[in-house]
Write a structure and sequence with these properties.
By secondary structure, the protein is of the alpha+beta class. Helices cover 22% and strands 26% of the residues. The strands form three sheets. Strands 4, 5, 6, 7, 8, 11, 12, 13 and 14 form a nine-stranded mixed sheet that branches. The chain has a three-stranded antiparallel sheet with strand order 2-1-3. The chain is globular. The N and C termini lie far apart (54 Å).
């Protein structure tokens, strides 16, 4: 394998990070500096000098405009996440976060998990809106983490994708991993993590379709990657091949993708379900598609 690809898997770093180490002369193969595109050979001696550890990320209590609390009890808090909000702090992210917004609202969440994502049991992309749950009690954190891992949580999304998927309902079963050339993207790749997406067309238009999606697995960018792979990317998702002309026509500046509902066994018992309405930008684009067809 190439140095950047092989060491990325070996060290758990991004390919860009490994490439940076190689360019700085911090990757030696048999005592000699190696370039990022050099090949790893069996029996070689690797020496890698890693950068000093970064300071741990901190949660800053800052109110998040538009973030609504849909439900709260002793175990959980369910929120409606707006656009442009990450779930927790991460390197390079300087915008608002769900955990920071909850802290600003005086909501105490579980202390289980890494410092910057305590209480977090699942995530949504910063550019994806909708319903999500955060654990408040340590018991809820343990129960919900297990439920997501064992796939007993029902996650339903609505998406508007380009064209009309054929068949109109079906399952996409294709492994996903990091894109082989673009580190910020994911792709369907041989040997990737098993990824399963079930879908059903709800409403069809000339240029696009509103679909209901049920995730069996929860890979990063799963819906976006799977529908791009079958040539029906989410409207507005320029990262994964959406038509920029259609995006402009519908005034979409991000992917049309919304976490519509979340259903699970409450940590204290009983099946619960929470739903989120479409935010203004998604509803406006959907109305425009209906008007154009009318």
């Amino acid at each position: 394998m190439r140095i950047d690809a092989g060491l990325s898997k070996l060290l758990g770093l991004s390919r860009n990070a490994v490439a940076g180490l190689a360019e700085a002369g911090d990757v030696l193969v048999d005592g000699s500096p190696a370039g990022k595109s050099d090949r790893l050979m069996a029996g070689s001696w690797l020496e890698i000098t890693l950068p000093a550890a970064e300071q741990p990320l901190q949660v800053v209590a800052v109110p998040v405009e538009g973030m609504k609390i849909l439900h709260q009890d002793d175990d959980i808090v369910v929120i409606d996440k707006p656009i442009g909000v990450a779930v927790h702090p991460s390197p390079g992210w300087e915008g608002p976060t769900v955990v920071g917004g909850l802290a600003a609202a005086g909501v105490q969440i579980a202390t289980s998990g890494a410092a910057e994502r305590q209480g977090v049991v699942h995530r949504l992309d910063a550019g994806t809106t909708g319903v999500m749950v955060v654990a408040k009690s340590e018991h809820a954190y343990t129960v919900l983490k297990r439920a997501f891992k064992e796939r007993t949580v029902e996650k339903r999304y609505h998406a508007v994708v380009q064209g009309l998927p054929d068949p109109s309902r079906g399952t996409i079963d294709a492994p996903i991993d990091r894109h082989p050339r673009h580190d910020y993207k994911f792709a369907v790749v041989t040997g990737g993590k098993p990824s399963i997406t079930h879908y059903q067309t709800v409403e069809a238009f000339r240029a696009a379709s509103l679909i209901d999606v049920k995730l069996e697995t929860g890979r990063t960018h799963q819906i976006r990657v799977h529908f791009s792979a079958i040539k029906h990317p989410c409207v507005g998702d320029l990262t994964y091949g959406a038509d920029p002309v259609l995006a402009r026509r519908l005034a979409m500046t991000r992917q049309w993708l919304h976490a519509r509902s979340l259903s699970f066994e409450h940590p204290s018992g009983g099946w619960v379900q929470f739903e989120s309405e479409y935010p203004e930008d998604l509803q406006s684009a959907l109305d425009e598609l209906r008007d154009q067809d009318g």
